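Data deposition worksheet. Section B asks for the primary sequence of the deposited chain exactly as it was used as input, without tags or linkers unless they were present during the calculation. Section C holds the resulting structure in token form. Section D is free text for depositor observations; keep each observation to a single sentence. Incomplete worksheets are returned to the depositor.
Section A, Depositor: J.P.
Section B:
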Amino acid sequence: QVQLGESGGGSVQAGESLRLSCLASGGSIRIYAMGWFRQAPGKEREFVAAVSWSGENTYYSESVKGRFSCSRDNAKNTVYLQMNNLKPEDTAVYYCDAIRLTNLQATGDPGAPYGYWGPGTQVTVSA
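Section C:
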């Protein structure tokens, strides 16, 4: 069973950057497309970004396009989310999970992920 652990969150000022990591254990994630999600207080979890299994293709929500960059290193069983020019509205707990790329490609929504959720990492951006 794949287990995921997110790290790299923190408290920053608006305009600053953070790099999140998602390390997988218990199995390889190289066969999965991987997605990043976030959940702000009082809101539902939302899709943020995704990367194909090879790392060749990436996908972003409109709210982060141009500011966030998703990548992966399959040799390290790790997925990354580089977040630049952070805004207060980016404040949330960030999670990663394996996703079905066909859903995302067809509808722009990854649908229900595989459910390997880790504990998440808190990102707080102050104005």
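Section D:
Residues 13 and 44 are 24 Å apart (CA to CA).
The first strand starts at residue 3 and ends at 7.
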